[in-house]
Amino acid sequence: MSKSFNPDDISPPAGHYIGGHYVHAKGEIDVTRPSDSKIAAACPIADERLVDEAVQVAKRALKTSNWGGVRPRERTKILHRWADLIEAEAETLARLEASYSTRPIGQLVQGDIAVTAEQLRFFAEFADKEGGAVAPTDDASVGMIITEPYGVVGAITPWNFPINMAGWKIGPALAAGNAIVLKPSEMTPFSTLYMAELATRAGLPDGLLNIVLGDGATTGHAITGHPDIAKVSFTGSTAAGSAIMANVARTGIKPMTLELGGKSPQIVFADADLKKAAAAIISSILGNAGQACVAGSRLIVEESIAEEFTSAIIEHMKAVRPGPTWDAETQYSPIISRRQIDRIHMIVKAAVSEAGTCLLGGEMMNRSGYFYQPTLLADIDQSSPAITEEIFGPVLTMQSFTTEEEAISLADHPQYGLASGLYTRDVSRALRLSRLLQSGTVWVNRYNRSRDHILPTGGYKRSGIGKDLGREAYQANRKSKTVLIAL
Asked: Taking the model in full, what pTM does it have?
């Protein structure tokens, strides 16, 4: 297909998606295109009444379809057909995503969309392969561990990778036999709505997948606090995750999967392949303009190569090609909103005012839309917000070390522990330090997820609880029951 397009030609889906059809509603939240700062659509807000309606629809759909009790292979077949449709409709999905999000059109069809289809197929295959065990007991009894779906899962996804994050939540929940009520971000809701429409076309029984639009304070609060929601899955900020935990506790106890914020370190030793390390680090901090929870935002480099490595990073940063997300040539994304770009700029300016050094960038780009210059900061105090806070932008801080102990000390963060990077040719060092790094994922001589969907992702500390992806994500959507039979 011709990837570049005119975003004014795009008509987004209107309303919520409940019970297998659109429920039209008046838009109450402006949806602004970050590439040109134009208000181009509106998002309605599902109130507590409408969220309850979606939950009751999901409960009835579970009962009438017997989704959790059918032959597991039937669930697998439908999810495979859904993945096929996502690939077949990749152009429509990509244009919806690129129009209203920070994801460039050139990275969507073979990237986000293809990966999402793969992940749906991956989770689909667990349906008839995971499901309990016979436990060792004495000869007078039989012990069994049986797993069952929870029922209705409530999910909330962020704005930074809308299609991927929807797949992370929906795939394992449906494969495991649950229904789902999902709220996408009010800033990027439309591609998720179209994914749900495709699920219906693939044969998913009406009401098993419901998309309600709205903000966190109203719609998200109603979902996570609903007494008939049996499990909650959320990806977003640590502050929002904490609020969700409090809201869940207000109405009862239920399991949660929370993938939250990060402030990920990347340690580079002098013996590393510096060319590959620089490329990986640039990809991690400039991909989606640093708007990723795993963004490798803290560079910690061995002192003997610090000057050389800094020069390489700066050269990479200077080579970015910003542009609107609907242009196929664009490689560098805009920031999602005026509020977010202002926050990035405030943290950068505060770091410089506190004796930090801005080696490159540090300003908004002089163009339409919300674009921020790739920024490299040095001489930053360990207590500075540039080091301690998740900036969620293309801002990389640089610190140096002389010993392994110092590197690990600098890498350790009092709050976050989502991911970390380690660059060295010494295998023993890589294995030794991987155990010392306090993060849920350690990437060695690379910094990004692969398409090995069996590898789970999740954080330590306040970066979250539970895992997305992998076998763990499927298992987290089923509850276990012990059965002991006397013979």
From this structure: 0.96
